[in-house]
Design goal:
single chain; 685 residues; alpha/beta; seven-stranded antiparallel sheet; 23 helices; globular; Long-chain-alcohol oxidase; GMC_OxRtase_C; GMC_OxRdtase_N; transmembrane helix
């Protein structure tokens, strides 16, 4: 058992509270009155005053930040604890902030100057620390249902339709989960599958249909239909890895990954793009000709049919319409993004917090239900410690469920734990192949924003239904970026405004309903890695390379032009040192001042701690290939070292897919299932 995690002391927590209270405090006195006057429309003064007076501490939300800090790896808690300890001394605060005095005892004006200094520092670690603390504070406050903030932003909170007839129209399948008794559990199956996402769900369905006795083990929890509150904070806490606050080791990339029953398919939006032809050809040239065959297309078609993927029922929301209009005016190519919505229109801007309506066709609604119908069994809240290996063959797994041990024997083990946890489990199980954990790709994302006179309400309607490929080939070899529209709730929006002072930051959040966000999703050529910490759990090592930064830069430049062409009155990026650009000329993208602005944006580039980078796609950390020297698994998905041990998830991608990877993950798992069935049938002859 790993050693207990360290805990922050009361003095360290006092400093942490003082930092987050600097970012989102209660406004008082003249500062409050100026805030109300600046944003008043003549009828909302009381609402603005209530929002101004609301702060992260007086709303009792500081505890959420501390909970998130305590969820970090032990070494990160120690590192942050050291910073807090230093800031709890007068000399330490002088050294790190230039002001003599214990940080928590300083006035808010003094603390404000210190955190601004960190944000603008030439020392990247100070920029990263400031950005991390702001992000934790912002998400904890603006994802929580703070009534005064939601009223001021005119944000409805949970989906207004959550109690409508849509909720009762489709019921979730009912799953019975095996409970481990106090004395432990030992069972035997033909196949045990670790993970219930796109890979694990398909494997469970295909192999149970083939007559195999299948057990699916999921470390996350299954939330019933009525338990999905569609409140941001509940969604992040319950459905995402690390409560939605997962990052790489240096804190420069924020990573969203599903951590619930159905994995990423439960929180994924509905985008279902096929693997581009040039990526299929790239993989074929790397020794995997299968991806250029009709057989692989048959797997894609099988998934498309089961999920009823189509673009026929798309109804673009306001933001996607503006993306299309801006591209039309510039002559940029666009296309609709097929959706896995069961052959019907699906307007659900809250899908990232679980589809309460049962319309999105994740594995919970489809493949896991198929597996259940064919006799598969399931475990939730169950962490697999390692794969059991005897004489070079996988024979089962051992793990714990709520502290109770279980041992599952099986003739085949399929690891479908995702690109973060799959290599970690293989390493814990003793596999030595040097490629396990290497080649991690994240599709690093940068955001670009435009503010419009009209209301946009980018959290309403269908999510991500259009894409432009104008920047997808930056390097001439298939690496560039796609430009799409995300769903944009206050919690996510809150991490992007440039923080200069508390009142200005709150004022920026009032523009929520008039913002069109565009994401620049880059196809990263250069990967990172997954390594296990001392506790045996994964750490994410990843830095956006110079090559991949160029892809982001072109995407950012194109996105700004799209927004200006679409009629934005103001545009900006998530780069700390680049100001917003106010559109004052009818010349639009031809305005010489705008062209100067674009050059400044590219010149500033993407710097650690100075630009917010995110990721919702993880892939490639157990890459498939035709040689154990360059890959972690065989073309069949079986590991090179251990017979009967398969990997079936996005970690087997040889390179980044360049598109939302869900459909590719489904189809590769479907292919691996066919390989297993064919091998089993051959062995019977």
């Amino acid at each position: 058992m790993p050693a207990p995690k360290p805990r922050l002391t009361d003095d360290q927590i006092k400093v942490a509270y003082a930092i987050i209270d600097t970012f989102i405090p209660e406004l008082t006195g003249q500062e409050l009155e100026d805030f109300v006057r600046q944003h008043s429309n003549g009828t909302n003064d009381d609402i603005l005053r209530a929002f101004g007076k609301s702060g992260i501490i007086n709303e009792d939300l500081g505890r959420l930040v501390i909970d998130k800090l305590h969820s970090l790896p032990a070494e990160k808690i120690d590192e942050l604890g050291t910073v807090f300890k230093v800031l709890n001394t007068k000399v330490g605060t002088l050294a790190l902030g230039g002001t003599y005095g214990e940080f928590a005892s300083l006035s808010r004006e003094q603390r404000t100057q210190i955190v601004i200094g960190w944000s603008n520092s030439m020392i990247s670690k100070l920029r990263i620390f400031s950005r991390a603390m702001l992000t934790l504070a912002a998400i904890s406050y603006f994802s929580h249902p703070v009534e005064s903030a939601q009223r001021a932003m005119e944000y409805p909170g949970a989906d207004p339709e959550m109690h409508s007839d849509r909720f009762t129209a489709k019921s979730f399948p009912v799953y019975d989960f095996i409970q481990v008794p106090p004395q432990g559990l030992e069972q035997s199956y033909d196949v045990v599958i670790v993970g219930s996402g796109a890979g694990g769900g398909v494997m469970a369905a295909e192999l149970s249909k083939a007559g195999k006795r299948v057990l699916v083990i999921e470390k996350g929890h299954h939330y019933q239909q009525s338990e999905l509150t569609l409140v941001q904070s509940d969604g992040f806490t319950n459905l995402y890895e690390n409560g939605g606050s997962l990052t790489n080791t240096d804190g420069t990339v924020t990573i969203l990954a599903g951590g619930t029953w159905g994995g990423g398919t439960t929180v994924n939006w509905c985008a279902s793009l096929q693997l581009p032809h040039y990526v299929r050809e790239e993989w074929a040239k790397q020794g995997l000709p299968y991806f250029n065959t009709p057989a692989y297309q048959e797997s894609i078609d099988a998934i498309t049919t089961r999920l009823n993927i189509s673009d026929k029922y798309i109804k673009h929301n306001n933001a996607n319409l503006l993306l299309l209009e801006g591209c039309r005016k510039l002559g940029y190519p666009t296309k609709n993004i097929p959706q896995n919505t069961g052959g019907q229109e699906h307007s659900c801007g809250w899908c990232g917090f679980g589809c309460r309506f049962g319309e999105k066709q994740g594995t919970m609604m489809t493949f896991l239900a198929d597996a259940k119908d064919h006799g598969a069994k399931f475990m939730q809240d169950s962490f697999v410690d390692r794969v059991l290996i005897e004489k070079g063959k996988a024979v089962g797994v051992i793990g714990t469920q709520n502290g109770r041990k279980f041992t599952i024997r099986a003739s085949k083990v399929v690891v479908s734990s995702g690109s973060i946890h799959t290599p970690s489990l293989l390493r814990r199980s003793g596999l030595k192949n040097k490629n396990i954990g290497k080649n991690l790709h994240l599709h690093p994302v940068s955001y670009v924003f435009g503010e419009f006179d009209q209301r946009i309400d980018c959290y309403q309607g269908s999510i991500m239904t259009a894409v432009t490929t104008v920047a997808e080939n930056t390097d001439g070899h298939g690496y560039g970026s796609k430009i799409e529209v995300p769903s944009h709730h206050p919690g996510i929006n809150s991490i992007f405004p440039k923080w200069e002072n508390a009142a200005g930051y709150k004022g920026a959040m009032l523009s929520l309903n008039h913002i069109v966000p565009l994401i620049v999703l880059s196809r990263d050529r250069d990967g990172g890695s997954i390594v296990n910490g001392a506790d045996g759990l994964p750490r994410i090592n990843y830095t956006v390379s110079k090559h991949d930064t160029l892809s982001l830069e072109e995407g950012i430049e194109r996105s700004l032009s799209i927004l200006v062409a679409a009629g934005a009155k103001k545009v900006w990026t998530c780069q700390r040192f680049i100001p917003e650009f106010a559109v004052k000329s009818d010349l639009g993208v031809e305005d010489p001042e705008f062209k100067k602005y674009l050059k400044a944006v590219v010149r500033e580039s993407i710097k650690p701690g100075s630009a917010t980078i995110g990721s919702a796609h993880q892939m490639g950390s157990c890459r498939m290939g035709n040689n154990p020297k360059t890959s972690a698994v065989k073309p069949t998905g079986e590991t090179w070292e251990v017979k009967g041990l398969y990997v079936a998830d996005a970690s087997v991608f040889p390179t980044a897919s360049g598109v939302n990877p869900m459909l590719t993950t489904y189809s590769i798992a479907h292919s691996i299932a066919q390989f297993i069935k064919k091998a089993d049938n051959s062995s019977k002859l």
